[in-house]
From TrEMBL:
Key words of the record: Amino-acid transport, Signal, Transport
The protein's name: Amino acid ABC transporter substrate-binding protein
Highest classification ranks of the organism: Bacteria, Bacillati, Bacillota, Clostridia, Lachnospirales
Domain Leucine-binding protein per the UniProt entry, residue ranges: 55-391
Keyword Membrane: no
Gene Ontology BP annotations: amino acid transport
Family classification: Belongs to the leucine-binding protein family.
Provenance organism: Lacrimispora celerecrescens
Alphabetized PROSITE patterns for the sequence: PROKAR_LIPOPROTEIN (PS51257)
Residues annotated as signal peptide: 1-18
UniProt keyword Signal present: yes
Length: 405
């Protein structure tokens, strides 16, 4: 009697979930069933929809709004990994059900998305995609003891709690790695910086770059900031960089502002080298942007779609066939995040009938015991503080495509 009632309740919950997701619209959520099918509207049926005997992995990120390029990429990269894993037998014999919620890069909406996923029965979270929502959700997931692996949340506090890990480098690590890359490869000795002092991502990279530059024989000849309230005219910052004799301009900012800087530098006749971090990934997709202006722009990123290794080529080919576009670093981060969870889950021998807290306790330990060969790094390992250990890489834009350096 109890088993029968339990099944009826499970079915009722699945129907209610499908109805609520359908009401949100096809652009707001994505669910991959245990059979590997995506139901963008949230409509699904049977055991796969209710998650019986399956691991429930949630995702959160912006799939609408100004930063949708990041969230869509992570969602699709993770989705692709889940489909591969399910086709290969799942995790410890159990399939994966995937449910991705849109947060529009808004902290309040991210917390609401988290609560939606928790009510759904989420056991592990791949997210969130951007830093501020990740920090907000981290406070909730820590209280609930739900395992959280962010593919791309780079702010320091995105890995603040014991249940939080990340695939990408933290902002300080990106700053230090950028200075090291520029110095070790002798790209320039005189460097100017243009950064967003109102943004935690940009400021975090900027501060660590400054401290590491001296160790690399780099002279900071100009250091100019802008804010979110004044981020369209960069003539003053560029003029100071030019007057200082900077050979390279470091841009620890997002691609939308970088596109304006490149266009305005061209108008001034100023042609230094430009070097950025993962926030510049997306530069070639800016609407009405002359991509020739990005020629030879360099950025620190762990993934290049033109890399010749077998894993990258397979991923790029499959991604293009499925989604009709070339994957960026964020797609690779999402893909690697899911495979990291798989490796940690298998190391800990967790099962789908375990509750989220028990799974979290197991993964906290096993994440520090695994090594993953992924798209964004070879032999990736994680420390107890949630940080990845992998070699930094950089790419250069050549003829309108990212090229490994």
């Amino acid at each position: 009697m109890k088993k029968s009632m339990k099944k009826l309740l499970s079915l009722a919950m699945a129907i209610a979930l499908a109805a609520s997701l359908t009401a949100c619209g096809s652009g707001k959520t994505s669910e991959t069933t245990a059979a590997g099918e995506k139901a963008a509207s949230g409509e699904s049926s049977g055991a796969a929809a209710s998650g019986e005997g399956s691991f429930k992995i949630g995702g959160i990120g912006p799939i609408t709004g100004s930063t949708a390029i990041y969230g869509q990429a992570v969602m699709r990269g993770a989705e692709l990994a889940i489909e591969e894993i399910n086709a290969d037998g799942g995790i410890n014999g159990a399939q994966i059900v995937y449910n991705f919620q849109d947060d529009e890069n808004d902290t309040e909406k991210a917390v609401n998305a988290y609560n939606t996923l928790k009510d759904w029965g989420m056991q592990m979270l791949v997210g969130t995609v951007t830093s501020a929502p990740c920090i907000a959700v981290g406070a909730e997931s820590s209280n609930d003891n739900i395992f959280q692996l962010t593919p791309s949340g780079s702010a320091v506090d995105c890995a603040k709690f014991e249940n939080q890990f990340r695939v990408c480098f933290s902002d300080p690590n990106q700053g230090a790695a950028s200075a090291q890359y520029i110095g070790e490869n002798k790209l320039a000795t005189k460097v100017a910086i243009i950064y967003d002092s109102s943004d935690v991502y940009s400021s975090g990279i900027h501060d660590k770059f400054l401290s590491e530059a001296a160790n690399q024989g780099i002279e900071i000849v100009s250091d100019e900031a802008f804010t979110a309230d004044n981020n369209t005219n960069f003539s003053v910052q560029l003029q100071k960089a030019q007057d200082s004799g900077a050979e390279l301009v470091f841009l620890p900012i997002y691609y939308s502002q970088a596109a304006l800087i490149l266009a305005q530098a061209k108008q001034m006749g100023y042609e230094p080298q430009f070097f950025g971090c993962d926030g510049l990934d997306g530069l070639l997709t800016v609407e009405n942007f002359d991509t020739s202006l990005a020629e030879n722009v360099m950025l620190l990123t762990p993934f290049a779609a033109d890399a010749k290794d077998e894993l990258t080529q397979k991923f790029v080919t499959t991604f293009k066939e499925k989604y009709g576009e070339t994957p960026n670093q964020f797609a690779a981060d999402g893909y690697d995040a899911v495979y990291a969870i798989k490796a940690a889950a298998e190391k800990a021998a967790i099962t789908a009938d375990m509750d989220a807290s028990a799974i979290c306790d197991a993964l906290k330990t096993s994440m520090t015991e695994i090594s993953v060969n992924g798209l964004t790094g070879e032999n990736m390992k994680w420390s107890k503080d949630g940080e990845p250990d992998k070699a930094p890489k950089a790419v250069k834009i050549v003829n309108g495509v990212y090229t490994a350096m």
